[in-house]
Design brief:
- By secondary structure, the chain is an alpha+beta fold.
- The protein has two domains: about 70 residues, HSP40/DNAj peptide-binding domain, CATH 2.60.260.20; about 60 residues, Alpha-Beta Plaits (2-Layer Sandwich), CATH 3.30.70.790.
- The protein is about 15% helix and about 30% strand.
- It has four helices and ten strands, in the order E-E-H-E-E-E-E-E-H-E-E-H-E-H.
- The strands form two sheets. A six-stranded mixed beta sheet has the order 2-6-5-1-4-3. It has a four-stranded antiparallel beta sheet with strand order 8-9-7-10.
- A hairpin with a 4-residue loop joins strand 5 and strand 6.
- The N and C termini lie far apart (about 100 Å).
- The N terminus and C terminus are likely disordered.
- InterPro entries: UreE, UreE_C_dom, UreE_N, UreE_N_sf.
- Pfam families: UreE_C, UreE_N.
- It comes from Thauera mechernichensis.
- This is Urease accessory protein UreE.
- Involved in urease metallocenter assembly. Binds nickel. Probably functions as a nickel donor during metallocenter assembly.
Length: about 180
């Protein structure tokens, strides 16, 4: 078949790859005075990872590359490699709230959870003292068996750091684990 002057041969087109912004890297906590320009909402398990890929509230993708063992807390601020200050927000998650009729019963519940190395948040409100832990039906059954009143809720989870952990602190503020502060008194 002969091609006439109206026939156009197909032309291969080469297009540039889609424009994508580079992954923003976060390698350090921030202790300065600048306000946060974005925030990162994470549950506790994710805040316990020192290396991860996540999305900020603005939609920007970031890579966290923090020192191993870093646990982020709600209210922490991070410094991105582009100069942006990012606030950490503790996401609501499914929790168990444990209350007991007496301090002895609550201490017993705390002992059994600690014996299983369960992360626990300790607090008090108008209803009295409570323990909170991530939802787990096996632990819930154990606590009910100990006589505790157990309810479920969705809330941010900020468990205790542990006796030998540095605790929640910001560089240069002089804070440390409460157990060490009390030991000298």
């Amino acid at each position: 078949m002969q091609a006439d002057s109206t026939t156009v041969a197909p032309v291969a087109t080469v297009s540039a790859p889609p424009a994508s912004s580079a992954l923003c890297l976060i390698e350090a906590r921030y202790s300065g005075d600048a306000p946060a320009s974005d925030h990162l909402e994470l549950d506790f398990n994710t805040r316990s990872k020192s290396r991860l890929r996540a999305r900020l509230a603005s939609g920007a993708e970031v890579g966290l590359f923090l020192p191993r063992g870093t646990i982020l807390r709600g209210g922490d601020r991070l410094l991105a490699n582009d100069g942006r200050v990012v606030a950490v927000v503790s996401a609501a998650e499914d929790l168990l709230e444990v209350r007991c009729a007496t301090a002895t019963e609550l201490a017993r519940a705390a002992f059994h959870l600690g014996n299983r190395h369960v992360a626990v948040e300790v607090g008090r409100d108008g209803g009295g003292d409570w323990l909170r832990l991530q939802a787990d039906h096996v632990l819930e059954d154990m606590l009910v068996g100990l006589g505790a009143l157990v309810s479920t809720l969705r809330a941010p989870f900020e468990p205790e750091a542990g006796a030998y952990a540095p605790g929640h602190q910001h560089p240069g503020d002089g804070s440390g684990a409460r157990i060490h502060l009390m030991a000298g008194q």
